[in-house]
Specification:
Structural class: alpha+beta
CATH class: Alpha Beta
Oligomer: single chain
CATH topology: HIT family, subunit A
CATH superfamily: HIT-like
Number of strands: 5
Helix content: 25-40%
Largest sheet: 5 strands, antiparallel
CATH architecture: 2-Layer Sandwich
């Protein structure tokens, strides 16, 4: 069995594990703040949001989630689930057009043991991929290269999403 070690995410995981207050959710905080550029919120829909991941596996790594704090798919309304899937579809189109990616991974980690860094607020990962986007750096030096400026990517994706 092969393992993918992602030590650059340790800071992120420890931050979420140290939250002791039941309703203290980093996603909920960002959604409520209404500081979209600061929080990299790309798009707000009626029931959900699209956010640029601050701890990405690759440049342009998006998260799509309900506005309300829900831990699983069954607990969100049909309208919200439908909207999230429409945003997922739109996100793939926007990433392909804007970042010219060669492929896209889409995933949902339900529960801590499934890999959810923030298990209390369900979210979908939309991860653009390019041929050759992995290399020796994470293995040899515990370093993941993100070769694009997050602020530039945010502005480009937001512009395209809001069309």
């Amino acid at each position: 069995m092969k393992s993918l070690h992602c030590p650059w995410r340790e800071k992120y995981i420890k931050r979420t594990q140290n939250k002791n207050i039941k309703n203290d959710c980093i996603f909920c905080e960002k959604i409520k703040e209404n500081k979209d550029e600061k929080n990299y919120i790309i798009f707000r829909a009626k029931h959900s949001v699209v956010i640029l991941n601050l701890f990405p596996y690759n440049a342009g790594h998006l998260l799509i989630m309900p506005n309300k704090h829900k831990k699983d798919l069954a607990s969100i309304s049909k309208n919200t689930r439908s909207e999230i899937m429409e945003l997922t579809s739109k996100a793939t189109t926007v990433l392909e057009k804007t970042l010219k990616c060669d492929g896209i991974n889409i995933g949902i980690n339900l529960g801590e043991v499934a890999g959810a860094g923030i298990p209390g607020h369900v979210h979908i990962h939309i991860l653009p991929r390019w041929n050759g986007d992995t290399n020796f750096m994470p293995t040899l030096s515990n370093t993941k290269q993100i070769s694009c400026d997050m602020n530039r990517i945010y502005k480009e994706l937001r512009k395209e999403f809001c069309k």
